[in-house]
Amino acid sequence: MVAFLGIIGTPLGLLLAVLLDQKIRGSRIYQSVFFAPVMLSMALIGIIWQLFYNKDNGLLNFFLGTAGTPQAVDWFGDSNVNIWAAMIAATWRHAGYVMILYLAGLKGVDPTLREAASLDGASASQTFFRVVFPAMKPVNIIIVVITIIESLRAFDVVWVIHKGRNGLELLGALVIQNLVGEGQVIGVGSALAVILLIISLVPIVWYLVRTFRKDSRA
Q: Are residues 125 and 70 in the same domain?
């Protein structure tokens, strides 16, 4: 999940931010539309995508022309595709979150940096990747931390989709299954919960250390 959000979700959010930063007409409306999923809980997002992925009358199978037929894809029951379905649902929310953060970062970049790069003959892509993107280093660090945390929070989506079973055994789902599920194994559930806590703390501690170290130098 971390890899998918990092490779697909985060770049998608960055792309949306760059496009909306071009002062296109109706950019405020687009920002609201793309940011809307962020205001929804992960559980609600799972329910929304459940309607989209439903085997018998879901919108996706309807568009594919297989709804209600034996050829309909079981997006939740098929372990080969349900993890991808869950990751796409999580990306829908994550991309909007990243977009807003990068938009704020782009607004904070000194315009003179772009002007200087333009005078040096740099193209738009060279200016962005060699000047603008490095200038947003604080935002990039925050987004790395958020991407890791969001991937761990995907529990809500996979639990709504298929109770964290059949190929959706994410760490958070395994914790719940072992602690309060049908086959309770308290020891295993507790151990998994500690592992989840440690994984969650690593990016947070890393970010705090960098922040405090920077403040102490200033």
A: yes
